[in-house]
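Example with several molecule types.
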Amino acid sequence: MVSEKMYELGTKKSTIRTIFEFGRKRAAEVGEENIFDFSLGNPNVPTPEFVKNAAIDILQNSEPSAVHGYTVAPGNPQVREILAKSINERFGTKFAGKNIFITAGAAAAITISFKALAENGDEFITFAPYFPEYKVFVESVGAKLNVVPAQPQDWQINFDAFEKMLTPKVKAVIINSPNNPSGAVYSVDTIKTLAQILNKKSEEFGHAIFIISDEPYREIAYGVEVPYVPNFYDNTLVCYSYSKSFSLPGERIGYIVVPDAVADFGKIFGAVAGAARVLTHVNAPSLWQLVVAKCAGKPSDISIYERNAKLLYNGLIDAGFECVKPQGAFYLFPKALEADDYAFCERAKKYDLLLVPGADFGCKGYFRAAYCIKTETIEKSLPLFKKLAAEYRVIGL
Amino acid sequence: MVSEKMYELGTKKSTIRTIFEFGRKRAAEVGEENIFDFSLGNPNVPTPEFVKNAAIDILQNSEPSAVHGYTVAPGNPQVREILAKSINERFGTKFAGKNIFITAGAAAAITISFKALAENGDEFITFAPYFPEYKVFVESVGAKLNVVPAQPQDWQINFDAFEKMLTPKVKAVIINSPNNPSGAVYSVDTIKTLAQILNKKSEEFGHAIFIISDEPYREIAYGVEVPYVPNFYDNTLVCYSYSKSFSLPGERIGYIVVPDAVADFGKIFGAVAGAARVLTHVNAPSLWQLVVAKCAGKPSDISIYERNAKLLYNGLIDAGFECVKPQGAFYLFPKALEADDYAFCERAKKYDLLLVPGADFGCKGYFRAAYCIKTETIEKSLPLFKKLAAEYRVIGL
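Resulting structure tokens for the full complex:
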């Protein structure tokens, strides 16, 4: 009677959701202050005042139909020009408004890109650990997602494994830096090597291989450079969102950059427009288009994330965990204290530490701790992580 | 290199778009005041002050994360309760929040519904004249759209033709009342007869046949009752949008009602959630969820549309056109003055009257005139319609 596939996708609870709901139940029993919920990647820095003020100013002083009317599908032309200019100032690119397609956030941006590019039999590649919705979105456009095994020592790219998996069927490679869940930022070297391999293979196969650079965490990096991928590789689509940088995840606003340098700009931009149309993204919310234009280039406040990252990282290292030093986003991805990360996260629950098994991100034996939570909660959790580690020393797993 | 289908969907200009762009070009040549553009269905009544004030109030007085944070996929639970209550008060229904799935407007609502229901080999039925995106959206979920021929004397349903087309393959029937482009409102009799036939055939075929009631124009009706379909037929999904009623088309906010009475509530609501997920409608824009809750049940100002409808209808009748009296939405769908509606619309262009051929809506020999424009423009256009009609009397087509 209904699409069984849609029913399954709409009702099967994700591990993260299940953990989160467990946390809500426990909080009702033992009190909010005794639950240490590291499960959700929900920005906890308040939306900046300048964003609020921009929205109010537009509502008060602009002609309503200019604010709330349909925009053309790729977005308000003036807004696109402003966003292009802001990107150019930051990254030395030469984009114009025509290179920008405004979207309802990054989920829409990446899926529109997948759907624009995917032909029959196409495959996409991403790198473990990875955001699990990639698999849902890639499969929803009729393509297949292959996952390159992780490189746990630094969460950069395992190029040997990657090259072996790079067959002529591969249409695009999805990267996500700063990374959810690893917290790593791909270095200039990593991006250069990736570009080199893709250029070589594109030539060998006689067709373009794209990079889809999913960058919702671009602004959240702690003193490391986040290379701007179009400066290193021509066939790049950049997918950006203001969900994290301006703490606006509910408003659904972001964009796709389609550079002139891609293999066939007209074809790709046209296919992006077609994909947005059938995914019924008629236009990105029009007020928020104007707001982000007014706030373009303004800084994100990442000081809370940086403080939390340091606190949690040091605390975990001190408790005996192994963990790559966080470079960005708002996640740590430490090694679990036993091979079975599900069992580990179950054991952590005894201390009301709510963690997500790494297997959910295609990377067994690790766990994700989202630290976009109150600093105080992290402080209070550290002795519990110590107790958890001590328990492992006793049981000798 | 890209999906050719997406490229085609993203670049093939619609007739409406082509006419609109011609109008912009002409306006630059001869002046805005000399162009009579009846092509676009863009609401021209300003967004009500109470909507603006609600948005500003929320931005000024609510905690930012409660305004801009992710909501759960079906929408903010309090908002869903308020919308259900408001629907109940107006239509005597007994919905609760759990029956509401908030969406990014009606395009998302209908396509999510199509995708939730469509199984392999399914067909959908709609009635000419019809909104042409139905075909794009139905085909995008892998189903087929069949169109029942029109009933031009009143634009109600041609039930004889409908019954013949109602095969076991039909999963759902899409209705749109008040109708774009005909301006008709389906009567209680029409809805009752439709329900009767569908009940009979559902039993005969041994499976549910759904009504998807696409209702973006519900509030725009001129003194006629717009029957609330779930009160007449159990297996109804209602798709609503605030684009027209509150003049918020760019903000993308609406909802789907999934009544308890549908064949299997849990299955259908679950599939709706899955469809929203893969179409990457993560949640409907969160600020606008709060705004429509604050404004639920407040009246839409339709006085301008009503005045324009009367003015244009009387003017066209006076000029010798045949036209069914408008009941709602903001369109007239008169008979063209020659069998070839494309040729007719081309001839009208000589007078800078920009009209859309009926064939675009599956109904040859008619044309659509959208009167959501300045009343003054309509006044000035009437003598031109007279000249156009006079030309036809001379050429004797």
